[in-house]
Amino acid sequence: MFNYSTMSLSLPFSFHKQARLSYMRMKYFFFSWLAVFIGSWVVYVQYSTYTELCRGQDCKNTICDKYRKGVIDGSACSSLCDKETLYLGKCLSTRSNNQVYMGSWGDLEAVIKCQMEEAVRFDLGADTEPRKGAVLFDKPTKGTSVEKFKEMVFSHLKAKVGDQANLLDLVGLIISVADGNKDGHISLPEAKSTWALLQLNEFLLMIILQDKEHTPKLLGFCGDLYVMEKVQYTSLYGISIPWIMELFVPSGVRRSMDQWFTPSWPRKAKISIGLLEFVEDIFHGTFGNFLMCDTSANNFGYNAKHDLKMVDMRKIIPEVTFKDLIRDRHCETDEDCVYGMDCRTTCDQTKKKCTTEVIQPNLAKACQSLKDYLLRGAPPEIREELEKQLYSCIALKGTADQMEMEHSLILNNLKTLLWKKISHTKDS
Question: What's the pTM?
Fold first, then answer.
């Protein structure tokens, strides 16, 4: 006998089961499509960002074209363009007009930096001031004698670092570097390369500080491309994570993560001493005073021995240049009187012009960068004194000229405190 009650119950159950399976398939299809879409978008954005920022091949083509035409020359030109032993590897660029690559030159690991389309000049609120690439290698002109070129260099340096008593010595250093093939003569192409590079502050600073421990060595150049010593660890602290993950990590958590991935405290102390020594190097150095206008942790690195090495010095500028830059600049508030991240002056409200004296000296800015770095994990027996000295250092105001004794005292006390604690360890 046919059971109607069984049929009436089974039909709705079967229908609901099929509907549920259909819903699950639609849901699976939707999320699969969404995952493919998001993945494709991420790949597209990554590729677009990479191709926009990483233009090393364009840079190499431009430089080598001018080298082959005899416009420029330098110690790295043949290796880059003829022998191809100067290799551009991993792209580290953060701006399209400042190409930075990890690479190699023969057996040497190196960092290669190249300017694209515009030369770096100082300007408040911006990294660069546009200047057409077509005129980048227009000086010195054909027929310029070596003596005339030296006069050009002298005048340029005087405008940048001021009327230093030993400026001729710096001219001599520049001329020595300009002689790329070391044949005792400066050719016009070598002079053109050198003149273009002298517009770049980091290049000038590497020459001025070439005998200092904490400055990467200049290895060679070609046009406005230059090769420098590789720094093994390129930030004081932190861990590199994919940019897509950065979007979902709160800033507070990110700061904590950065502090987790640091060397041991004695090694941090040694690196910190190196930064304090670098501050000494550029404070009333051989060729004047320089200002550190960006003391971000990613501008400082260190080597395998935990000796501090500068990674990026583009925002370290001569004090004379800074004052010329900011003098008479129109302002409404103090925020209009900033260069880089950290070089700040005040706005004269009566004249609506920026003053020329920086609010914080280099040492105060360095101590601010080191505060959390040094206090985290500091030995209990020196933590209180270390914190006291760091805060005294951060409180320094005005130019170092106005407080030279206090500046030197705080710097030396801080170095002494750190050295005493680590001098008996293998990390020192």
Answer: 0.81
